[in-house]
Write a structure and sequence with these properties.
The chain is of the alpha/beta class. The protein has helices at 4-7, 57-60, 65-80, 103-118, 129-138, 170-181, 197-214, 240-247, 249-255, 288-302, 317-327, 329-332, 355-366, 401-404, 409-421, 427-442, 444-451, 465-476; strands spanning 30-38, 41-46, 49-54, 92-95, 140-142, 158-165, 185-192, 219-222, 257-262, 272-273, 279-280, 307-310. It has a five-stranded mixed beta sheet, covered by helices on one side. It is globular and about 65 Å long. It starts with a helix and ends in a 5-residue tail after the last helix.
Length: 481
């Protein structure tokens, strides 16, 4: 069991509230963007505002000098091209650099992700996808006439080493556990965002006992450029993981890693129709099609044989919970999937007031796992917690795009049904039984085949695929009976 000082986090109460406003940047229709190399990173200048991004000296010093300028230009573009959505008077973006290699990737990625931003908006005009697309198309992006810099190819990566964006969420914990079982040398990196100080502190408090138990040092990188996102909002967050792919390239070189392993699972490919009639993916940049594009972009900009993939592509969230907690319980006990967007009322690692907390809570109960073993403090099946669950279609709380789209509704119905069959009861469960029990019984077999089945596997590295699929069959096949 975790020690008391890790289960409880009284330190969170002393963390200052994060800033709630964007940086003050003097904008009068035009944003001038330039970048400059520093001793262990670089800075980005937007009109009169300068924002540095610095790496640990041991990481930056091992990143080839010939690649530094190229990386700087692409990260500068990737963190600024969405500024017209944040500073709405901007009509023109003037870049003091040639067209970066990532320009077309980011443009496509944002265009495909904007519908998922639209659905989260409170203003009626922002909820219309075509209005957001028009804003993107109406902005002029102007670059210098210099020739685009292309990095030399440098095959230094090793196929038994992997960089992992790591959060202590269920997905990254299972990816870590699988990679270790497969014999990979894993280097987990947590990238902290300036608007998430409570989440960052929680991860730091968990990282030390994790290091002692599993002899794995978790690296921490402050994304100071993260201030260029909408605080407590959605604009600027659309391609967060794509930005991380570029930011992790110095770690790829320093550790000679052959992979960056994201943790995108099967439901990341789900699509729905929005209010404007667009078919869209609620988490587009986590889709497996985009992950392949992301891999291409990072390998071209990095100039090496890097491959970005996901070991979890074939399986759904409820299956991830089962495998993680059944096969790797010592790792599973560190799970914390909540982003802690606000200072928690308790000292726990879950806010217990968002749709993600509700989703994880019922998925745990579905497999007979007591939520308190990973830090939940309240019984989220009390009547006042109906609003946490997608299947009851409430918009009274801050919901994540995947939940608000209702793309995972049937998966949650299955979770409730499995928990109900285990004898779990409470006011929320009573509502479930009244509304969905008959449906769940009728479609039990189909739901199990869908959410405990093994599906597409395009992004699993080819040499790892057979062993990964064998593990999934061992853990999930009994649930299909």
């Amino acid at each position: 069991m975790l020690s008391q000082n890790i289960t409880d986090f009284p330190q969170l109460q002393s963390v200052p509230e994060p800033q709630e406003k964007l940086p003050k940047i003097k904008v009068n229709g035009v944003a001038n963007i330039s970048a400059q190399l520093l001793d262990r990173g670089f800075s980005i200048k937007i009109n009169d505002k300068v924002i540095p991004l610095r790496y640990p000296p041991s990481i930056w010093s091992r990143f080839p000098k010939v690649h530094r300028k190229i990386l700087m230009q692409n990260i500068a573009f990737g963190h600024t091209f969405q500024l017209p959505f944040l500073y709405t008077t901007i009509k023109k973006m003037l870049y003091s650099m040639p067209i970066p290699l990532s320009e077309s990737f980011f443009f496509k990625g944002l265009a495909m992700a904007l519908p998922s931003t639209a659905i989260m908006q409170s203003l009626k005009e922002h909820r219309i996808t075509s209005n957001l697309l028009r804003k993107l198309y109406d902005t002029d992006y102007v670059f210098s006439h210099h020739k685009t810099d292309i990095p030399p190819y440098n095959r230094t990566s090793m196929s038994d080493r992997a960089i992992m964006p790591f959060t202590f969420g269920k997905d990254s914990l299972l990816t870590y556990a699988l990679a270790k079982e497969l014999g990979l040398k894993v280097h987990p990196i947590y990238i902290s965002e300036p608007y998430s100080p409570y989440e960052e502190l929680t991860k730091k408090l968990l990282s030390e006992p994790f290091r002692r138990e599993f002899h794995t040092q978790i690296g921490f990188l402050k994304n100071t450029l993260g201030v260029l996102r909408e605080p407590y909002g959605w604009f600027g967050w659309e391609l967060q993981l794509t930005q991380y792919s570029l930011m992790l390239l110095p770690y790829v070189y320093a550790k000679r890693a052959g992979y960056i392993l994201f943790s995108n699972e099967q439901s990341c490919d789900d699509t729905v129709i929005d209010e404007d009639g667009f078919r869209y993916n609620p988490v587009f940049e986590q889709s497996h099609g985009w992950l392949l594009q992301n891999s291409l972009m990072a390998s071209v900009i990095g100039g090496n044989s890097l491959s970005i993939g996901s070991l979890l592509e074939p399986i759904h969230e409820i299956a991830i919970i089962k495998i993680l907690h059944h096969r790797y319980p010592k790792i599973a006990k560190y799970q914390t999937s909540c982003d802690l967007p606000y200072k928690p009322k308790s000292d726990g690692r879950w806010c217990e007031n968002c749709s993600k907390c509700g989703r994880m809570y019922i998925y745990l109960l579905a497999h007979g796992i007591q939520p308190k073993t990973i830090g939940f403090k309240r019984d989220l099946l009390w009547s006042k917690y109906h609003h946490l669950y997608t299947i009851f279609s409430s918009n009274r709380i801050r919901e994540f795009g995947y939940d608000q789209s209702e793309a995972g509704k049937n998966e949650q119905i299955l979770a409730f049904y499995l928990a109900y069959k285990r004898g779990i009861r409470g006011p929320v469960m009573t509502t479930f039984a009244r509304r969905f029990l008959a449906f769940a019984k009728k479609h039990d077999r189909t739901l199990r085949q869908t959410y405990f089945g093994i599906h597409s596997m395009r992004t699993i590295p080819a040499d790892l695929k057979p062993k990964v699929i064998r593990i999934f069959h061992q853990e999930l096949d009994p649930l299909l009976k």
